[in-house]
Amino acid sequence: MSVMRKKIAEHMTMSQRTSAHVATVYEIDMTRVHRLREQKKGEFRQRVGTELSYMPFIFQAVTQAIRKFPVFNSQVAGDQIIYKRDINLGMAVALDWGLIVPVIKRADELSISGLAKAANDLADRARAKQLKPDEVAGGTFTITNPGVFGGLFGTPIINQPQVAILGVGAIEKRAKVVTNEDGEDLIAVRHMAYFALSFDHRIIDGADAERFLAYVKELLEAGQFQV
Known about the structure:
Structural class: alpha+beta
Number of strands: 11
Shape: globular
Helix content: 25-40%
Strand content: 25-35%
């Protein structure tokens, strides 16, 4: 094993020993976010100077959900729960030689353009081995994106000392039953994705996890973002 591989192995097995891992999966309709991104990505690239992916929308929905359910931005110390003031989003980046999790500091204070610039910059410098130590430290909640490789969903291991991690599956066209304004059920093609939330059952109960992910679903399906 390389030094990085040894550290990953140690960190993952420690997390499995530490947290009582439970997972829940929601299917989320990303059609409105998809349409908004398609409408804005060209102008966004010219104005902001970076690409507009789906992730900034997901980041913003998650930070809003964390503000509503702050236990997801905490950590366990003995028999105490420490609630973190800042929301520092870790974003897992796959490298040819391993995995690294750079952190977007105070992500809840950033706009969609701010999140896009921060995420793209961190990912590019991670692949170029140019990250500073403080840029991979201090995360309070992590998001991983197996969907970029085509994965539908997985149940990721919590990034200690955090208490939850969200896995985003591939966003793809699927046939779904929708109800029109007249109350009729129709089959339509929608852009769908599975979101899998792994959480620490020591301090987060299933009902809290369901409310958290349901709120993320509500925000993304509404698609009301300022780009």
